[in-house]
Hints:
Largest sheet: 4 strands, mixed
Amino acid sequence: APMLKKFTLTLAAATMIFAPGVGSAGAAKQAKLSDFYFTAIDGSAMPMSAFGGKVVLLVNTASFCGFTRQYEGLQALWERYEEKGLVVVGVPSNDFNQEPDGEEEIAKFCQGAFGVTFPLTKKVSVTGSGAHPVYKWINAALDGKGKPGWNFHKFLIGTDGKSVQSFSTRVTPNAPELKAAIERELTKVGVAKH
Length: 194
């Protein structure tokens, strides 16, 4: 009963989001990335718990943006660091009116134009009251300073699933400060084996 499982996940996530007091920054700091889930671009479940203990680079993406070429750099980061424990997750969003297409077109475009093999989520909102719960959590965890200002904003989430670093659109995937932050976080992969 795969449908039932998805529904249970949804219910658990919904309960968590609307639980009393979860709106507070304190509660957001208790939450971690593995408490959330996305739906993958192909419609399958993408629980963030699948990436537990890894370093996650979450990037809101768009196909028709001046920064769309950053897909290339993101793919290069993924290829360079995947075996060391980095997961790049692309989150297509039309919040800035540059991702009007449906999931199938987005997937074809990313895979065709840029050879993207890193995970992509279904198209979601990343800002405002309708933002995906992960983005609401990030914003609360960063004391209200975690809203993407544009496409290709990057959030680097540490192996603890709690520490979040923010890198604006202008910080390209091959920017030295982003690479340094990734490498710092990767040193923690596998250190705290359970």
